[in-house]
Amino acid sequence: MPASVLPDGxxxxxxxxxxxxxxxxxxxxxxxxxxxxxxxxxxxxxNQLDLSAKRTFRFERKDVQAQFALFNVMNANxxxxxxxxxxxxxxxxxxxxxxxxxxxxxxxxx
Length: 110
Hints:
Strand order of the largest sheet: 5-6-9
Number of helices: 0
Order of helices and strands: EEEEEEEEE
Shape: elongated
Number of strands: 9
Helix content: under 10%
Distance between the termini: 69 Å
Largest sheet: 3 strands, antiparallel
Strand content: 35-45%
Radius of gyration: 24 Å
Structural class: mainly beta
């Protein structure tokens, strides 16, 4: 298969043999070798902006603390993990940065 049909035109790992079937019906993983040297291809850097605020209100001997947090404010969708095995799904995202998330909380001390 030519490299041009793969994502970014790159192959990362090739399998040298198929899985070996043992007498008891178990299989051993296929032996592979690296097509790109380790520690040479990395995902792009990702940035995440989180904001939080809290305010404490006092009522006689009781405290109420209101909390607000907003995670991933810019709603980045950076790829954190890709498929590494050779095949048609090579380079497909497996895990992306979680979308925008809001947290509201109240803390009562009495």
